[in-house]
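Tokens for chain A. Residues wanted.
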């Protein structure tokens, strides 16, 4: 990159890092999707020195890489107090999203994007609300995104020339690590295979063997262990109690085909499961529009649909932030879909040799998996846009491709997209527009679940991470 391009990237990444550092320090502990369960998983490893059974806790079915790193962070920072532990766990996630933005910027320039388009694509990676929340959350989601992002440049190198053992090794390594972090690592693993679907020479076969061996070496052990212990390589605790009963409370009705075919306007104008027309919080009903799978996914990508950062008491008519962000989000989403359509057309013409065929394969597998998952699990909790986060880097490239196909309207569309990226940074800065969640808001729920999941370390996690910092008494002398 030129000096000017590096400066533009620094002016984007440094403010993002500063904002995330503030949020990581000032947000109450365990603010996020199942954060107590994720932290409890890491704590169980730190305390017992071994992996828990996949059905031993709320989140213990997940592959273990993030939690192994979290256990190391916990042991190292525990003498410094709960604030340090929480910040350390969140730093894993924040660094992962920063890496993803850096890769997005480099790939955008490599695709021929102007500096303004590349900057906007990277800003979207950093500041889309779904990514912002993942960046300061005790969870494995952001790490899976970052590891997938590190694999994609090498996958695109292989797409140009598959007989590169070094590129195959890097792609296989990071794809395997992504699989060892979250089941959504499947998306990038499929992308790894696309460059090798053409006829290969001897060097290409050698590169395939190297990449495949590393992918299996790092990715397969967790799935083999799951198969041995549970009979399934991808077990889910949501089929067991008490998780099943908790998610049943978030199930409005059985899934219907029409849930995938229509996005009601209320998903944009009231982008929260708690936001019901004419009812102040606490309401007695869920937002029925969120039965729309794509509507709920969009609302949870572009706003806080589940109330993990903006307290649910502000999810009512008259609060402008939700509709503003979702309506602005339509512009970059439309550009991204245009780019995806262009990439699909390119694959249709050129087959697996198309330059962006691996990204198209990732998108198809990711979206198909999301559809299958939400069909099987009709609960609102299954429709989170966070499950699509590993597609964040391909989406940034599709945004670039879409912007390149635009002509007169490009400057305006990219400018609106930049606003759609930067404005959430203001909305989701803790304490700026909204107060943080109360630390006690979910504590009773997790305490009750602890009695039903005795090996999940939920109560101990709450007691350790939500403990007040000790006050220092000045020396009277």
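Reply:
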């Amino acid at each position: 990159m030129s000096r000017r391009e590096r400066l533009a990237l620094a002016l984007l990444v440094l403010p993002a890092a500063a904002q995330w550092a503030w949020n990581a320090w000032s947000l109450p502990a365990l603010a996020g999707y199942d954060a107590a369960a994720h932290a409890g998983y890491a704590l169980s490893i730190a305390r017992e020195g071994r992996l828990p059974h996949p059905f031993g806790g709320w989140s213990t079915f997940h592959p273990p890489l993030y939690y192994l790193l979290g256990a190391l962070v916990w042991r190292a920072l525990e003498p410094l107090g709960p604030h340090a532990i929480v910040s350390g766990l969140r730093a894993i996630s924040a660094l992962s999203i920063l890496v993803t933005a850096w890769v997005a910027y480099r790939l955008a320039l490599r695709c021929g994007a102007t500096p303004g388009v590349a900057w906007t694509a990277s800003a979207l990676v950093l500041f889309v609300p779904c990514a912002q929340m993942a960046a300061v959350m005790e969870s494995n989601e952001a790490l899976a995104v970052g590891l997938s992002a590190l694999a994609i440049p090498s996958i695109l190198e292989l797409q140009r020339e598959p007989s590169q053992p070094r590129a195959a090794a890097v792609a296989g390594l990071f794809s395997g690590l992504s699989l060892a972090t979250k089941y959504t690592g499947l998306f990038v693993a499929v992308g790894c295979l696309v460059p090798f679907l053409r006829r290969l020479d001897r060097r290409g076969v050698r590169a395939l063997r190297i990449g495949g061996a590393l992918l299996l070496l790092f990715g397969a052990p967790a799935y083999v262990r799951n198969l041995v212990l549970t009979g399934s390589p991808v077990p889910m605790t949501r089929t067991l109690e008490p998780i099943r009963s908790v998610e049943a409370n978030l199930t409005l009705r059985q899934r219907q085909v029409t849930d995938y075919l229509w996005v009601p306007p209320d998903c944009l104008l009231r982008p929260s499961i708690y936001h019901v027309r004419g009812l102040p919080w606490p309401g007695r009903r869920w937002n029925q529009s969120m039965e729309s799978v794509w509507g709920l996914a969009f609302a949870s990508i572009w706003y806080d649909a589940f109330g993990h950062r903006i307290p649910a008491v502000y999810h009512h008519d008259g609060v402008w932030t939700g509709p503003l962000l979702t309506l602005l989000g339509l512009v970059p989403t439309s550009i991204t879909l245009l780019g995806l359509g262009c990439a699909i057309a390119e694959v249709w013409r050129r087959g697996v040799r198309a330059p962006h065929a691996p990204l198209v394969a990732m998108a198809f597998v990711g979206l198909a998996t999301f559809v299958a998952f939400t069909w099987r699990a009709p609960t609102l909790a299954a429709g989170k846009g966070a499950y699509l986060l590993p597609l964040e880097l391909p989406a940034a490239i599709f945004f670039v491709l879409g912007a390149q196909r635009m002509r007169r309207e490009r400057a305006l569309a990219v400018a609106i997209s930049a606003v759609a990226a930067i404005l959430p940074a203001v909305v989701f800065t803790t304490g700026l527009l909204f107060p943080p969640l109360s630390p006690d808001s979910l504590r009773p729920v997790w305490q009750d679940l602890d009695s039903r999941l005795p090996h999940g370390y939920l109560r101990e996690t709450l007691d350790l991470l939500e403990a007040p910092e000790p006050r220092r008494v000045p020396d009277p002398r």
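Residues 469-477 have pLDDT under 50 and may be disordered. The radius of gyration is 22 Å.
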